[in-house]
Amino acid sequence: MSLARGPRSQTLRGSDDDLTMRTNRVVKNQIVFRIKDARKPASRARRPATLNRQSAAPADPGFHSRKPHRKSRTGCGNCKKRRVKCDETKPHCQKCESYGVSCDYAAGWPQSRESNLLLMLANRSASRAGPIDASVLSMSITDQGDRIKQVLQSASTCDADPEPLPSFTMDRAPFALQCFIDTVGFVASLSDSSRKVVKGDMLRLAFRTPYLMHAILGVACTSLYQFSAYDKSQKIAEAYHWQKAINLYKKEIQGPIGAHNMDGLMSTCMMMGVLSFSEKEYSPFDSWVFTSRPTDLNWLLVQGGLRFLIESVAPWLPQSIWFEFFMESDDENKTFDDHRPGPVGLHPELAELCEIDETTTEDDNPYHWPLRMLTPLLDTPMVREHFSKFSSFMGRLLPDYVSLLHRKDARACLILAFWMGKMCEEKWWIYPRMQAECTALCMFLEHNEDPRILKLLRYPASKCGYILRYEQQQPLLMSNLDFSELLL
């Protein structure tokens, strides 16, 4: 039996010689492997074999010249950025179509770092898209551009001589829309319900409502202009979209208003309200309180347009995409929609200043209703779930009180300063304007001779960071008294 196994063992060794080391062996038809310990350095006896194997390696192949080929000299900018050969198909090359980016033939300008930033924002927005906005973000940038162009052109189909859409706005429209979607995700003041509407139903509505699409692109271009080294072309696109949005909105609002157009009109009105707070920097010296132009207060009065729309569509409001958001402006106890007469529940010192007694109503005293709205807000925490409660203050101001603001009435200005001071507690997107306007009101009211107003002015001044004049003089007076005591 042992003689019969010998040749078989030799055969196994020969067949496995390429797979095993020399030290491997066959024991009872089983191959026994000896594994080399990688922690131990290689023995000197094995080094010559390694050298022989290295020396036996084939030599480097010789240099071969590249085959002649035609370079893409007039390709689009995106293909050049990606370092791929453009097929130069116009108006959109096939490479960009398949890659899902907007071809920049029609733009006439090379893509800059700003364009790369916008593309990055678009990709980030698409990667974070939830199920609500997936129908919008699932489109490629090229598809978005075509659909944006289609909805904007539909606004001029009724005109006898429709104007062509300018290329400098349309080429950047997909990037602007993606930037808008991305920015919505970072707005700290938006509640969950409002964020859901803006990124979902409102965007879907914009693809069939020209004035709303213009307003959204206007907001996006305004934001991009501020954060793109003040690119003039971005400013031109911003002005174009806002002009179209306002003109189309005005034309639509002059017709019948109902369930068919209430969401488009209210969404556009909100976007125009955002424009009032769009400046990156504000100066207190540019405030309406230091000018004689009534139009300088329009940034506040434009917020009242939403109240008019809500009253006009009240029967259909439960069907609106914004209904849940509107319900957040009050609680189950109607705390923020209190129309009781008299001073009960009002800020006591402000109520005394405004001469409110037990018989006073909002019909005979213009300070009563804004003070009734303001008082519960002062004790409400500034969190995003309550943002609609704070912002609705602007839209519910009545004409009698607005007339007092135009006349720069001290008591009306003080109530407004209290609300602005409260809005300065959080650095939301409205903070720059609120802080500047509140500071301007403090600068204006600190010259008032009524000691009650000067005392109450401490609250808004402390919130906006303004040091009142008489508070600056008190430390100086005390230091002078201390110095005179030392001399004595």
TrEMBL record:
Key words, A-Z: DNA-binding, Nucleus, Transcription, Transcription regulation
Span list, region Disordered: 1-21, 37-77
SMART domains in the cross-refs: GAL4
GO-annotated molecular function: DNA binding; DNA-binding transcription activator activity, RNA polymerase II-specific; zinc ion binding
Domain Zn(2)-C6 fungal-type, chain residue ranges per copy: 75-105
UniProt keyword Transcription regulation, yes or no: yes
Listed Basic residues bias regions: 64-77
Record-given protein name: Zn(2)-C6 fungal-type domain-containing protein
Organism: Emydomyces testavorans
